[in-house]
Amino acid sequence: MYDGVVARSLLLHVDADSFFASVVLRRRPELVHRPMAVVAHVFIASANYPARAFGVRGGMLAQEALALCGELQLIDVPREEVEQVSDQLFDIFGEDFAAVEPGSMEEAFIDSGTSDPDLAAALGQQLRARVKRELGISVSVGVGRTKLMAKLASRTAKPDGLHVISPVDEAQLRISIPIDDVWGIGGKTVEKLRLIGVIRLGDLDSRPREEVQRVCGTTMARKLWRIREGTDDAVIHSVESRTSLTTEGTISGYNRRDWNPAELMQACIARVCRRAERAGLVATGLAVALRAEGGEQVVLKHGLADASASVDAWTAALLPQLVDAPKPLVGLRVTLTGLTTPDRVQPALF
């Protein structure tokens, strides 16, 4: 069980607080203490904490959010600004730590490089201070022995804090934590486990392993047992270099005119190419995923013999292919692939 696990570097889980909203609030300080949310298409992408006090949450319809909070300020998502801050955030992670595993555009697991909880906490506080100073947003940091424990710690730390799960706390959590609070356990699995009396993680001890395996499958059962025993994932899968960059957009937005498909594609290609240029990268491929109402999706792809981050080159290559777009188009996602530095590009022979 847990007591027999060999000590290793503690992990940090770093998560930006209300990321999209926080990025906007840097230039709209008058909204810091007022309910506000950022909207992507017709859905809430991120809400600040005053808005969350009214029950506004990410993923709900903007109209539903307004019904909960009539004074809610809604702002269309500033995608270019959000993506730039995300890139800068990960640049800081990479400069301060050797091993970083992205979780999303605003969160990551990080190997602290130390098994000393006080030192790991100090490193986390230094990181929080640097992000606040340089980017003007807050991040919460959790310190734990495994990814799950670090994630649980960062949840406790929110908003704008740091929390360490000690060995004593971890041992207790692996008994008392409700199954539906365990990261990576989906709702359907939670309901199946409830039917056999597994409400908290420690309840697994009272059920035959064959029963747990029958109810939720071999893979999930093994995952649950590893979590209960304290042998769950504690390895950082570091990304040494970026191989792709992605951006996305929608035809409709909040409080702005609708874009036509060509405008949206051009804007997304320009945005992702600017990100590549800032990072000193060029790409050999570009893919555009076109999404229509009803969920139909068409993916357009193109490659260039000479790697490039040129907006004009990629736009000229992909824009004519819009004739194949499903209709009516709702949004699209643009991904630059095969990223590398210009000095590593082999010139085309023909």
Automatic annotation (TrEMBL):
Described purpose of this protein according to its UniProt entry: Poorly processive, error-prone DNA polymerase involved in untargeted mutagenesis. Copies undamaged DNA at stalled replication forks, which arise in vivo from mismatched or misaligned primer ends. These misaligned primers can be extended by PolIV. Exhibits no 3'-5' exonuclease (proofreading) activity. May be involved in translesional synthesis, in conjunction with the beta clamp from PolIII.
PROSITE patterns in the cross-refs: UMUC
MF terms (GO), sorted A to Z: deoxycytidyl transferase activity; DNA-directed DNA polymerase activity
Residues in UmuC domain copies: 11-186
Species per Swiss-Prot/TrEMBL record: Glaciihabitans arcticus
Pfam entry (one): IMS
InterPro entries: DNA/RNA_pol_sf, Rev_trsase/Diguanyl_cyclase, UmuC
GO biological process: DNA repair; error-free translesion synthesis; error-prone translesion synthesis
Protein name listed in UniProt: UmuC domain-containing protein
Family the UniProt entry places it in: Belongs to the DNA polymerase type-Y family.
